[in-house]
């Protein structure tokens, strides 16, 4: 540690991956850390999504930092529980106190001399050695491009911007979209007795995984002896890694079992043949992100719920008109229409080596990275959960824990004075791109659907291999994949 250089690192975002990055950087002896967060609290996804029914669909013992297990209340933590957890960890590790809240990074510009200049909307300017973009991937709400969307006379909002000020009692509510979010929010609205019309464009496969509440006696046992939770974590980890992930990446036995389960779920939960037909997807199981839910099918069969599959022709002041000409009158319209999937750190300006912009790299809707973390032309700039990460079938916290260790190894090359600039070689980016493409064959993501995983070429930006391959790929840095430049002392001095 004594002879190591101490870099300055700027982290964009104080969600789960930003908190984690700050904790691990500090633990590895890096002290010059700046964290910038656009909102007024840590938490990311779990701060932004407060819709009724919001919950994680990954088991909580698996969806938490490995170094900070807690006696969770639910098998899959609900939104509030997760937000509390993020705030608890942020405080406990002294991250929250270090965050600059309510500040938006507007630009990151590389000076070709080993430094990034980062500017914010508050007029602050930081000159740093490394940037970690911990900005999350599904955070910019996507509103549908439906004619007349702005003409609706009632209240309307996106699920990620839930309006808690509107009293929903006695209201006729329309929900557009039937992804994971809609499957959580619709049952809550139906249960509350509202009249709910669900506009479905494409049905989803639904994996039945009930969200049970853990009994108090069990939570007390965990509280008393936290190591007891290890067993539970291991069970969930094995279930995800050996069943869910393997089923998605093409393992025949797990894949067949997964198919059988979701099909049986639909068959037994929806007895009416006409409704079941409407809810049956025509693409492979898991191609779109598998919905994990046990409440939607029963909710949609309640008398106050209506599943509309005719397609929307336009939105009018009084409601939604479907292609059969019928106007569905509504008081409230909720857009459960997902997110701009590849925004990552954008819309901020990111300018790398030789004036190369992020739009030059990603503008055409293709997202090339090396190991999901590094981008060509952007030295010393690291992505958390970047394109090519094993998202969609595992805990993003577990993924980020592996990625942050890889980032620390990269930064170590700088700290050990082996490099001032670290960038992937073009060959490394190409080889990672081919590696991903090769692995996709036989995976569920190419099973004939349109999904938010797809880039402009229709290539899913995921990691289509078993979990242990990912862990292995993060275990050590192959310096042959990197262009590591040492800058002249005079140049570096000038940059400072
Ligand atoms: P989503 O999966 O992208 O679903 C968006 C829905 O809106 C789809 O049903 C889509 O239909 C529909 N839609 C979009 N534009 C439309 C239009 N113009 N007309 C009609 N329908 C339209 O979004 P999401 O449900 O918010 O979920 C996004 C991701 O967030 C999930 O896949 C999951 O990874 C994550 N998530 C996780 C949890 C969790 O518990 N961990 C919970 C919620 C969300 P098409 O299918 O036809 O495009």
TrEMBL record:
SUPFAM superfamilies: FAD/NAD(P)-binding domain. The keyword Oxidoreductase applies. Keywords: Monooxygenase, Oxidoreductase. One of its GO terms (molecular function) is monooxygenase activity. The keyword Oxidoreductase applies. InterPro entries: FAD-bind_Monooxygenase_sf, FAD/NAD-bd_sf. This is Monooxygenase.
């Amino acid at each position: 540690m004594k002879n190591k250089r101490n870099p300055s690192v700027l982290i964009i975002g104080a969600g789960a991956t930003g908190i984690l990055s700050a904790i691990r950087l500090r633990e590895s002896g890096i002290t010059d850390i700046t964290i910038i967060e656009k909102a007024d609290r840590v938490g990311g996804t779990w701060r932004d999504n407060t819709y009724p029914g919001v919950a994680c669909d990954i088991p909580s013992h698996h969806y938490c930092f490995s170094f900070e297990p807690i006696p969770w209340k639910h098998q899959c933590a609900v939104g509030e529980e997760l937000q509390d957890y993020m705030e608890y960890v942020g405080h406990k590790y002294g991250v929250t106190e270090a965050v600059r809240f309510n500040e938006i990074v507007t630009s990151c510009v590389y000076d070709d001399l080993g430094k990034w200049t980062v500017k914010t909307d508050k007029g602050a300017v930081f000159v740093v050695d490394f940037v970690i973009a911990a900005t999350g991937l599904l955070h910019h709400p996507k509103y549908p491009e439906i004619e007349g969307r702005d003409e609706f006379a009632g209240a309307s909002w996106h699920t990620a911007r839930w309006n808690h000020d509107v009293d929903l009692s006695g209201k006729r509510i329309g929900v557009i979209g039937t992804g994971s979010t809609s499957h959580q929010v619709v049952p809550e609205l139906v249960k509350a007795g509202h009249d709910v019309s669900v506009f479905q464009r494409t049905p989803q496969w639904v994996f039945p995984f009930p969200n049970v509440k853990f009994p108090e006696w069990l939570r007390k046992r965990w509280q008393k002896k936290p190591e007891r939770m290890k067993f539970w974590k291991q069970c969930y980890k094995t279930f995800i890694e050996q069943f869910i992930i393997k089923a998605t990446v093409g393992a025949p036995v797990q894949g067949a079992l997964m198919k059988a389960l979701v099909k049986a779920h639909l068959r037994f939960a929806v007895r009416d043949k006409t409704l079941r037909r409407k809810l049956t997807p025509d693409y492979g199981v898991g191609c779109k992100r598998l919905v994990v839910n046990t409440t939607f099918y029963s909710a949609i069969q309640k008398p106050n719920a209506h599943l509309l599959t005719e397609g929307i022709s336009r939105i009018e002041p009084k409601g939604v008109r479907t292609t059969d000409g019928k106007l569905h009158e509504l008081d409230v319209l909720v857009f459960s229409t997902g997110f701009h999937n590849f925004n990552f750190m954008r819309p901020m300006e990111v300018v790398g080596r030789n004036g190369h912009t992020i739009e030059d790299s990603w503008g055409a809707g293709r997202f090339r990275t090396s190991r999901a973390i590094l981008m060509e032309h952007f030295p010393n700039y690291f992505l958390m959960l970047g394109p090519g990460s094993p998202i969609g079938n595992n805990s993003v916290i577990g993924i980020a824990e592996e990625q942050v260790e890889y980032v620390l190894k990269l930064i170590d090359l700088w700290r050990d004075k082996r490099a001032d600039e670290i960038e992937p070689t073009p060959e490394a980016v190409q080889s990672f791109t081919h590696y991903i493409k090769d692995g996709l064959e036989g995976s569920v993501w190419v099973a004939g659907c349109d999904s938010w995983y797809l880039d402009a070429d229709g290539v899913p930006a995921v990691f289509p291999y078993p979990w242990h391959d990912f862990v292995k790929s993060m275990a050590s840095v192959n310096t042959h994949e990197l262009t590591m430049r040492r800058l002249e002392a005079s140049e570096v001095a000038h940059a400072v």
